[in-house]
Amino acid sequence: MTQTPTVNFANFLHELSKVTSAMKGFMRQKFKEHDVNITFEMLQVLRFLWGKDGVNQQEIADAILKDKASLTYLLDNLVRRKLVQRTEDSQDRRNKIITLTDEGQEMKDLIMPWITEMFEIAGRNIPSELIGSGLILFEAIYLNFEQQNK
Fold first, then answer.
1. Is the CB of residue 60 less than 8 Å from the CB of residue 110?
2. What pLDDT, on a 0 to 100 scale, did the predictor assign at position 88?
3. CA separation for the pair 141, 109 (Å, rounded)
4. Could you tell me the residue range of the domain that residue 139 belongs to?
């Protein structure tokens, strides 16, 4: 008996949720083993800043797909841990520029090998063509929602 497209899609999204959960669990285990006091969501912020430091909160929120309130909470926690700092934007005092502290930058050397390991585990025995097809699939799904919201 074949499943309907809706059921197939629901199953697909359930599997995607399991993968996301497995990746978060992998990183949580690494954090615990090495006594790193951050969450997966904080890691998303740090990872963005490791690629582009010194940006405003809205740019980070857009990049990691978090609303401004959620990002503010994450940044408050990262500031308390002395991993990032907020400074006033010289162009617009209402904006805050988020930059890594030395500790936040140094954390990259510790964590990036774990991220690489996680990606290697996730991609094991998966042909690059299949991964490319997956990217196309996710872009198409996203575009469906973008068109729906117009």
1. no
2. 87
3. 34
4. 37-148
Q: For residues 25 and 61, what is the distance between their CA atoms, to the nearest angstrom?
A: 23
Give me the residues of the chain with pLDDT under 70, please: 1
SS3 at position 97: strand
The number of domains in the chain is 1
pLDDT of residue 92: 78
- For residue 123, being part of any structural domain is answered with yes
Report the C-alpha gap between 83 and 118 in whole angstroms.
23
9 is a domain residue: no
Residues 57 and 45: beta-carbon distance below 8 Å:
no
User: Is there a contact between 52 and 91 (Cβ–Cβ < 8 Å)?
Assistant: no
Integer Cα distance of 55 and 100 in angstroms: 10
